[in-house]
Amino acid sequence: MPSPIAFVSRMNAETEAVWKQALRAAMPQEDILSFSELTDEQRRAVDFAIVANPDPADIAALPGLKWIHSLWAGVERLVLELGDKAPPIVRLKDPALSRVMAEAVLAWTYYLQRDMPAYRENQKKALWQELDYRHPGEMTVGLLGLGALGTAAAARLIHAGFNVAGWSRSAKAIKGVETLTGDDGLQALLEKSDVLVCLVPLTDATRGLLDADRLTAMKQGAALINFARGAVIVADDLIAALDSGRLSHAVLDVFEQEPLPAASAFWQHPKVTVLPHISAPTSRESSARIVAGNVRTWRETGGLPETVDMARGY
After folding, report:
1. Which is nearest to 59 in space by CA: 37, 78, 33?
2. Segment 9-42, tens digit of pLDDT
3. Catalytic: 69?
4. Which of 277, 289, 296, 312 is catalytic?
């Protein structure tokens, strides 16, 4: 009989129990136990773990791990905390997540295209004023990141009639998208985007990517959507760009500290829409099915899905 699967997280007991229920339903043949439920003998025997931002000390207490499967698509915290000595890490790749993110990108792009922030401010002033309509075909949406999420978002935007350009670390070809790469490509994307959508993973290369210089390089009056990670943008530089009028609005779903502290300037800024990290919520049932499929393949063939490149950070 195979050794139990360790479930290692920083979730509270109630949330962890709900996740374990979903995972057990997807793979009833497996024995899935929380780290705290494992005996010392089981901890030595465990060769696979399902994790959700685990305590590194708990991972270190499982010396026989051959690989770990994250329940999240973003793994920057895992990479940072576990370091080079981590067992192979598989991150969640869920088509349902891509669909939900693409919906969010389109929805909040519409929010900006239809000048909803301005109408919100006019309502506060009891001001009845019609603004000029901008057709999607008159606007370019720039996608900073063309992975699975960016590619799905591009398809939605193109179908809605927007012009779409995208930047990625390595060169890509996507039908209907002007694809860019390198420093020159990033500069070009910033200069042409009416709405810039951040979808890059957080790595050493992307931390602080949008600083004062790059925000200043953006098209006058452009808007920004950040669905990536808070640290991709230098917060003080973003506020300065909004205050100066360089940028017209920012929709922010991610922050360096979450929940966003009450004292943050973002809460009350008239040119900022704050969201509580809801752009692409993870589906427990869908995630559990994907993890179960990967575990089944590993049990049967010994093969692993694509693992995280620790040097690259994703």
Report:
1. 78
2. 999 999 999 999 999 999 999 999 999 999 999 9
3. no
4. 277
Tokens of 126: 């009891």
Q: What is the pLDDT of residues 209-232, one digit of tens each?
A: 999 999 999 999 999 999 999 999
Residue 132 in this model has a pLDDT that exceeds 90 = yes
Using DSSP's 3-state secondary structure scheme, residue 249 falls into strand
Q: Which residue has the tokens 């900006």?
A: 112
Q: Say which of 229, 269, 284, 299 is annotated catalytic.
A: 229
How many angstroms separate the CA atoms of 256 and 173, rounded?
32
What distance in Å separates the CA atoms of residue 298 and residue 127, rounded to the nearest whole number? 62
Distance, CA of 70 to CA of 93 (rounded, Å) = 10
Indicate if 277 belongs to the active site: yes
Rounded distance, CA 232 to CA 203, Å? 9
Q: How far apart are CA 86 and CA 60, in angstroms?
A: 9
Phi-psi region of 145 (alpha: psi -120 to 50; beta: other; left: phi over 0): left
Q: What are the backbone angles phi and psi of residue 295, rounded to the nearest 5°?
A: -65, -40
**Dist. CA 221–CA 167, nearest whole Å:** 20
pLDDT digits (tens, 9 = 90+) for 80-121: 999 988 999 999 999 999 999 999 999 999 999 999 999 999
Tokens (6 digits) for 163: 């012009």
What's the pTM? 0.91
How far apart, in whole angstroms, are the C-alpha atoms of residue 298 and residue 274?
A: 41
